[in-house]
Amino acid sequence: MAEHSSDTDSDSQGPGGLFSNFRRYFERRFELLVLSIAENVSLIFTHLIQRLTGIIVFSTGLFFAWLALGFFLAEWVESYAFGFFISSLPLILIGYIFMKVSPVFISRRIHGEIMREVISRFDEFREDEDEGAKKKSTES
Question: For residue 83, which of 65, 69, 95, 93 has the smallest C-alpha distance?
């Protein structure tokens, strides 16, 4: 530990030492930037996986509920074919609407949500970084 402090003292004594300190500072800042980007990307993927899992579970439940509705309507109208046809009409209608809606509209909404998430994470990182800098300046 004493060896490290003597190295920093000798580095700060000359112009070469100042350059070495700046280089070390920028290397550390770059490492911090890479780590924060990796953290934010992993957080976004974690949220994506969580949402996809929720969608899959919800879709499975919806599938079985629709199947039960088909059987219920089939008994009610006394025809399996007509019961399942009636239960499929809302799905056909929703599918048709999604086919006719411009993909640009949907992709813009998804892109906008992703960008809002990334910007909010970046703002949180900047606030944390600013608080850390304030703490270091008050400790000095």
Answer: 69
pTM above the 0.90 mark?
Answer: no
Q: Which tens digit of pLDDT belongs to each residue from 35-91?
A: 888 887 887 888 888 888 989 999 999 999 999 999 999 999 999 999 999 999 998
Which tokens sit at 14? 């000359």
Residue 22 near residue 12, CB atoms below 8 Å = no
Q: What would the two tokens of residue 62 be?
A: 């919806």
Question: Would you give the end-to-end CA distance of the chain in angstroms?
Answer: 20
d(CA 132, CA 113): 29
Which two three-digit tokens encode residue 130?
Answer: 């600013």
Contact 44, 117 (CB under 8 A): yes
